[in-house]
Every structure is written in structure tokens, then in C-alpha cells.
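batch job 7 of whatever, protein = Large ribosomal subunit protein uL24
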Amino acid sequence: MSKQPRKQRKFRYQAPLHIRHKMMSVNLSPELREEHNTRSLPVRKGDTVKVRRGDFKDHEGKVEGIDLKHYRVMIEGLNVQKPDGNQVYHPVHPSNLMIVDMDLDDDERNEILERKG
């Protein structure tokens, strides 16, 4: 793999969905790290996350949506008002988040945690 910034950018812009999903990894809280013996996991709809940087620092909310094309996460309660009065989600980059509570309803996700741990 190349170190050149232009090739790194090209890789991110042209990455297929299965790799984009891995790039959407978010650090786990210290309690979850200890419990599951892993540092980070790809974020999913239904997880509860805490914002660690930016205008909405320390805000906790449930993940409402994930934008794989632009590498952004939509969080419940993180809204901004547009000039026409509409409320829209304020997208946040996953590097600025921390998973506080995971949605463990999915069997595949449980298998991933067992495999990593």
C-alpha cells in the first residue's frame, strides 16, 4: 500500500461498501473495552454514542442513520435549523464519537465480538 497522500485519498473516495463500513469504526467506552476486549467496532444504527469533539461535545444520543458515502453518522437530538426553518441532522465524523452502549440484538455482531475477544 502506498504512503502517498493522493493515493490514500483516492483509496478512501473509491472504497467499496464493505471497506467503507470498516472505516466507520468508533472507539468503545472504557467499560465496554474491558468487557469485550476490543478497542473499536463499526458503528451501527441503534448504538448509543457520545460526541467527543465539536459544537455538540458531550452530547449522547442514539444513532439514527449512517452515511457511508460521506463517512458521517446521524445522531438523535443533534439537529441544526436551516434558513427555511427545517430541522436536519448534523452529520458527525465517526472519529469524533465514542460508543457508550451497543445494540447487541444482531447475532452477527455477537459473533464478531466473540471472534475479537
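notes: The mean pLDDT is 94.
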